[in-house]
Design a protein that fits this description.
The chain has about 280 residues and is α+β, with helices and mostly antiparallel strands. The chain contains eleven helices and nine strands. It folds into two domains: about 150 residues, Sandwich (Jelly Rolls), CATH 2.60.120.10; about 110 residues, Arc Repressor Mutant, subunit A (Orthogonal Bundle), CATH 1.10.10. Helices cover about 45% and strands about 20% of the residues. The strands form two sheets. Strands 1-2-9-4-7 form a five-stranded antiparallel sheet. Strands 3-8-5-6 form a four-stranded antiparallel sheet, with no helix packed on it. A hairpin with a 2-residue loop joins strand 1 and strand 2.
Length: about 280
């Protein structure tokens, strides 16, 4: 059984609501940004850098021409393809970025984006008989998504990870993240993180991953990469010094993580920005 519903297609992108139990095992690389959100169940993807499993309410972003294939899907997914020139236009209104943004290849979870997905699908269901109303609404949805992605996800444009929504939604997680951000060079242990959250380390590890989609240590390593990006852009420090200043255990670990997230090394990123 397989079904796909096209909600909208225009010059800015494509919105799809998909329920597909068949395997899509062919490699593909599309000339657009792809936002893939798991509505229910797991989705397994493979890229040339890693294998990823999305759980319910988690999402992933594929950059233009990124090779990937879907291995399996349990239930439903929401897929939006964004035109690179459209995303570039939106980003230039927000940031002084003069290169094509690359989003980090990692599983993410964000309450604002989850609320937005639910809102769009609910509206599409309620207004399915009013074609013009739905079309106008969905046209504006592309801009809303582009803004949310640029403000809430990790990419080559990012100087910080904005998690202000958790300040009121989940003060316990927010307090811990704030501590990690304020002392990100520190070699944090799980016990130390859990102590800030006033939880046992097992409770904390499960709770953190359930809330943000990744483990506490993976989040910290990703944040270190984010902090390193500004140093690569604005200083002449060596990659080794930047890795050490950001709390990585070695320059090898830093290079490997940077390349896994972006497909390029820190040195290549610096070169790209300088051009």
């Amino acid at each position: 059984m397989s079904s796909t519903k096209l909600l909208l297609e225009n010059k800015n992108g494509v919105l799809l609501y998909k329920k597909d139990f068949s395997q899509e095992s062919n490699w593909r690389s599309d000339d657009c940004y792809k936002f893939i959100y798991s509505l229910k169940g797991n989705i397994d993807y493979q890229t040339n850098r890693s294998q990823l499993t999305l759980n319910s309410q988690q999402f992933i972003l594929f950059n233009p021409l990124a090779e990937h294939k879907q291995l399996a899907i349990d239930d439903k997914k929401f897929l939006i393809e964004l035109n690179p020139s459209f995303l570039s236009e939106v980003s230039q209104n927000l940031y002084p970025v003069h290169h094509d943004i690359q989003f980090a290849l990692n599983i993410q979870k964000n309450s604002q984006l989850s609320n937005w997905v639910r809102f769009v699908l609910d509206f599409a269901q309620l207004e399915k008989d009013d074609t013009r109303s739905l079309e106008i609404f969905l046209e504006h949805s592309f801009t809303q998504l582009a803004l949310l992605l640029l403000k809430s996800t990790v990419g080559t444009h990012t100087q910080d990870i904005n998690l202000n929504t958790y300040k009121t939604l989940d003060p316990q997680i927010y307090k811990t993240i704030l501590a990690l951000k304020e002392d990100y060079q520190h070699s944090w242990t799980l016990d130390e993180m859990a102590k800030v959250a006033s939880l046992s380390k097992f409770q904390f590890a499960h709770y953190f991953k359930d809330t943000l989609g990744i483990s506490p240590y993976s989040w910290l390593q990703t944040y270190r990469v984010v902090r390193s990006q500004e140093m690569l852009i604005k200083t002449n420090n060596t990659v080794l010094k930047i890795a050490m200043d950001c709390g990585f255990s070695s320059v090898t670990v830093y290079n490997q993580l940077f390349k896994r997230l972006y497909g390029i090394t820190p040195g290549a990123f610096r070169e790209m920005i300088n051009k």
